[in-house]
């Protein structure tokens, strides 16, 4: 694949846009709050909403969306030893990992009735993943989930979103000291679904958090992963892949808040787009606070545009408040198929359609391998193949 590395602040001809801004995009129009009233109704001119098609959010942004009885069905399969609870709003673990940063997240927090809390006990190492199936049944729902790993526990959690409907939900990850959590969040919605979510991770001392976000389906999907550190020695890896099809809007807005010294982070998101009005948005924010000496961080976004009519907005932001860091950087690249690469494969007897498949599979391969679950990896490869088949 040929990449077009575009200078900061520039826009290409046509429909590919890449920009970086001097102010971190997570400087919201209102400070974080659990109260919906603290957030003004967005009109699309605000920094945090300027890319989002508000008219397609089905009322999540302005308070007109009302929960219905046919919202979502949640099923949890957990290995022995894992505690699965349904708790009320007053549970102390709810909201501990982070506070809503926009109106939809605050609406979800204010509107949910019961939350799911999944706890992996101290020093427990799971040999099977926890699987959470979230299936939309056509209605509107607000949800909240908490996944907590006690100190030195290790677990893999798969959250699989399917079906139709409208969902606004917050997910909290509490990673205890020395614990290791991998979360695979799959958005495989039907074509008319709307999903807006905020993911909050609080990483403990010498703990490890790996997030793999996979987005394929839905009419509008807007996700906001956020990471903060409770102490030193923490590691956060945020990976993502998305395949944006005709008419879809897929938006991933990330913040890694280095609020403690001597922690690391690595962000890598890749996307492919095809079809008229396919729109992918990636906002990657890293904030290194004055107290976060010894920080080492890097973020990357790469996009592959397969057809005309697709649009990419890629905005990496890096704000550093101290000079005492180990390293910091970011990169964004967007491009189309490399004709020379295709010619190379075709010259060796590989048909054009198969050559395209090989290029795209290679583009995503590194991130798919981060999942570490053969059944999930195979499913995603099959999904990529199906998306490519539709474009040929």
Automatic annotation (TrEMBL):
Instruction: Fetch the NCBIfam families from UniProt.
Output: sufD
Upper taxonomic lineage: Bacteria, Bacillati, Actinomycetota, Actinomycetes, Kitasatosporales
| Name listed for the protein in its UniProt record | Fe-S cluster assembly protein SufD
Among InterPro entries, the record links this protein to: Fe-S_cluster_assembly_SufBD, SUF_FeS_clus_asmbl_SufBD_core, SUF_FeS_clus_asmbl_SufBD_sf, SUF_FeS_clus_asmbl_SufD
GO biological process terms on file = iron-sulfur cluster assembly
Encoding gene, per UniProt annotation: sufD
SUF system FeS cluster assembly SufBD core domain ranges (all copies) = 136-363
Give the UniProt family note. Answer: Belongs to the iron-sulfur cluster assembly SufBD family.
* Domain of life of the native organism: Bacteria
């Amino acid at each position: 694949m040929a990449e077009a590395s575009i200078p900061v602040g520039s826009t290409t001809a046509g429909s590919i846009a890449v920009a970086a801004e001097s102010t971190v995009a997570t400087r919201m129009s209102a400070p974080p709050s659990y109260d919906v009233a603290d957030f003004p109704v967005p009109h699309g001119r605000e920094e945090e909403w300027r890319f989002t098609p508000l008219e397609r959010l089905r009322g999540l942004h302005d308070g007109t969306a009302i929960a219905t009885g046919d919202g979502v069905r949640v099923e949890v399969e957990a290995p022995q030893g894992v505690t699965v609870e349904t708790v009320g709003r007053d549970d102390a673990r709810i909201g501990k990992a982070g506070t809503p940063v926009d109106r939809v997240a605050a609406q979800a927090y204010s509107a949910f009735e019961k939350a799911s809390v999944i706890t992996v006990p101290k020093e427990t190492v799971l040999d099977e993943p926890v699987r959470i199936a979230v299936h939309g049944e056509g209605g509107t729902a607000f949800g909240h989930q908490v996944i907590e790993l006690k100190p030195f526990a290790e677990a893999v959690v798969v959250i699989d979103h399917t079906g139709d409907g409208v969902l606004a939900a917050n997910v909290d990850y509490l990673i205890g000291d020395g614990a290791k959590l991998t979360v695979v969040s799959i958005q495989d919605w039907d074509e008319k679904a709307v999903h807006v979510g905020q993911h909050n991770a609080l990483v403990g001392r010498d703990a490890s958090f790996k997030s793999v976000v996979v987005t394929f389906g839905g009419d509008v999907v807007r996700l906001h992963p956020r990471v903060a550190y409770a102490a030193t020695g923490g590691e956060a890896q945020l990976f993502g892949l998305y395949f944006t099809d005709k008419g879809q809007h897929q938006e991933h807005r990330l913040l890694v808040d280095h609020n403690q010294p001597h922690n690391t982070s690595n962000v890598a998101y890749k996307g492919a787009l095809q079809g008229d009005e396919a729109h992918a948005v990636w906002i990657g924010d890293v904030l290194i606070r004055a107290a976060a000496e010894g920080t080492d961080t890097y973020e990357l976004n790469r996009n592959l545009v397969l057809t005309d009519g697709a649009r990419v907005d890629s905005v990496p932001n890096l704000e550093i408040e101290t000079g005492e860091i180990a390293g910091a950087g970011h990169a964004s690249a967007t491009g189309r198929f490399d004709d020379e690469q295709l010619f190379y494969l075709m010259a060796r007897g590989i048909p054009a359609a198969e050559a395209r498949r090989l290029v795209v599979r290679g583009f995503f391969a590194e991130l798919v391998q981060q999942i570490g679950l053969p059944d999930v990896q195979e499913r995603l490869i099959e999904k990529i193949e199906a998306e490519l088949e539709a474009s040929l």
